Structures are given as C-alpha cells and as structure tokens.
Amino acid sequence: MSQQRVTALDERLWQLVLPSSPFETLSTGHLWTEGPAYFPTGDFLIWSDIPRSRMYQWIPDLGVRVLDHAANNCNGHTIDPKGRLVACEHLTRSVVRFELDGRRTVIADAFEGRRLNSPNDVIVASDGGVWFTDPTYGIMTDYEGKRSPSEQEGCFVYRADPSGKVEAKIRSMLKPNGLALSLDERILYVADSSASHDAAGYRHVVAFPLGDDWQVGEGRVLITIEEGVPDGLRLDEYGDLWVSTARGVEIFAPDGCPLGIIHTPETAANLCFGGPKNNRLFITASTSVYAVYTAVRGAACPAR
C-alpha cells in the first residue's frame, strides 16, 4: 500500500475522494491492463492483459488468478443488468456475452456485411441495447490483436439492439474509445483518443444528446485532456465523470468543470467502481491494477 496522491482543482472534489484512504496495488507485472469489471454477486474483479490475451480475477482475501489463458485479446468489459459479462475482443473483432451457463454469444462482429475493426469498450443500456466503440487499435499491429486491414469506412460508435440489429450511431469520431451514459440516459459520453497515434488527433470527451428512440443528436466537446488521452469513462452517483488518463483518474462535474485528479504511478487505461458498497475505485494502469476507496458510490445501473 502507498499514500494516495490527490490534486484538487475545485472544492467539490473533497465530497468525492478520501485522501486518507491508502492506494493499494492488487496485481502487477502485466504488459497492458484493461477492461476492469466488478461482479457484485461474487464480490470479485476481472480485467484483461490484452497483449498476453489473458483474463484475470481478483478475489478479496484470496488474491489473483488467471481466469482465461486464451481470452482473444479482450479489451473493455461490462456487466449487464442480468449479471452477465459482456466483452470486446480484439482478436475475433467482436462483442460477445458470456451467458450464466457459460455459453458464449456473439452480439456483433460485422456491420453491413463487413467485419468490425476491433471493439474497444462497451456499455449496456436499461433497454438491453449494447453500445460499443470500434477503433482500429487491435488491428494496427499484432501486439493487441492481429494486424489486418480495416473493412469499415471509419471508426464508429455502434448500438446493437436487443433483437441483434447493429446500427452505426456515431460516425464523426476518429478513434472512439471509452463511453458512458448519463444517469437519465439522455447523454452519451464518448472519449476520442486519436491523439495517441496521430499528432493531429483528438484528446477529448464528447457529449451526445439521446432521444426517446435512442437517436443521437449533435455532439459537443465537453472535456479536453491536457496530458495523454482520455480512455475509460465512469460516472458516480451524482453524474460526475471519472476519466482515465496519463495522469491517473481525472474527475469532472457533469458540466465539464475539472474537479481534481487521483494520480496513478502509471498511465491509467480504464476504471470501474465496485465493492459491496460500490465505493471502491478499481484502476487498470499499464502494468498494474490498483484500488482505492472513495467518498462517493459509482452510478447504479442506468434507467430511463
């Protein structure tokens, strides 16, 4: 354990963080950790080491084990309202769901007859619709997937409805990455991390209004990251945005006002809330996985 380092940019930050809470290292020695997801029914955390194509599990008081040695270079994960794991797989270029009996269901692997790029992050809305981003990171090299040509016209944000229909909802972003829904599901937040590989790219989070029928309105840049790029996104119970970046976890009010930073020893790739009280922040950061308690709970399952 180590002392937590926090930078306050607004007094409201002290309602969200616990500076005296120790910063814990749950696991280390990885190549690139991603996709943390907490299972409340079992009180455990899973995440992926993308280059090693492994999925790991951490259980309180028991420690860490490899849960899957051939995880298809999986990246982002989420837990749907029925408690099922939904995963973005770079190697298979698909979004899949693991049923409660262990079966693997493919939610999406193509759009308009062409293979997806490499699904990156995913969320499930209250109606069962699955939203996911599809940049090309997993097909650019063999390190995080398999080097392959893109078959799509761009990198889009998709929605797979409960019937299985896949629709490109946002086509205006260069490298859409992390995403999150506002508490009332009227805003979709999407990170564009294209500056990671393109000097002319973006490092911002865009807010898109959502209509009653899940139609997407014109987006506006809500947050611009100063160091590195925005990657994973999560909301707390008040609708504040927690964003993983090169500096750690940066926290913003719903209007985009920066509140502060929880610094991490390495670049933070993704994050999620969990624990029995949903007040523990889990962070996948480069070679390690960290945890710290917060003064706020993570957002509950979205509901319209």
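Above is the first protein from milestone M3; the second protein from the same milestone is given next.
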Amino acid sequence: MKRTLIVITAALLAGVASAETVAELHETELNNIDKNNDGFLSKDEFNAFSDYAFQAMDDDQNGTLGMNEAKPFLDIKQFQKVDRNGDSIISRTEFDSQMGSDFTTADQDGNGQLD
C-alpha cells in the first residue's frame, strides 16, 4: 500500500491527476485514506496522507527529499517543478506547498473536499 499511496502523491505533484482520475485509479487506497468513511477526502485527511507520503519517501529521514529519494516517483521535470528554489532538494515546505496547490486544483467545486 505504501507504494500505491506514494504513486497517488506523485500523480498529484505532477499535476496530471484530477480528483476523478485519482479516485478511478486508486479507489481502494482512497477509501483507506478516507478515515471517517464519508466517501469524500477532506483537506485534513489529504494533509494526513501527504504527511505519510512525505515521510515514506524520505528514506534518510532528514526532512528533505533528494533526487534519489524522489526518483522512483517523480521524473526530473516533476522534481524541478516542486523544487521551487532550485537547490536540488525538495524541502517539506516546498512539498506541502505543492500538495496544497494540487488539492485546491483537484477540488474543482471548491467545497474543501475531493469526492
């Protein structure tokens, strides 16, 4: 399940997934993320998932993602998109910022949840 959850994160970070696409491809995993089982992914549930995904990718647990840690999930262009300051490291702030933007983009009706 770790790999699949991180793939969802990579799809969001890459900007290639709408809420519908993610739900169609990973319905079982999304159901696991939906902690209150209401059929929606709230911002809090999404943030908890994002936290898990970052920690799972951060192999050396140093609070950043280097290219080698991200390589299984992001190609170089995706990595560079998230690495906003261009220092070849994705900080937790950069990751959280991108994931927040991706949630907002996927939340097409602006109701604060993905369905």
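Note on the second protein: Residues 2-106 form a domain with the Recoverin; domain 1 fold (CATH 1.10.238).
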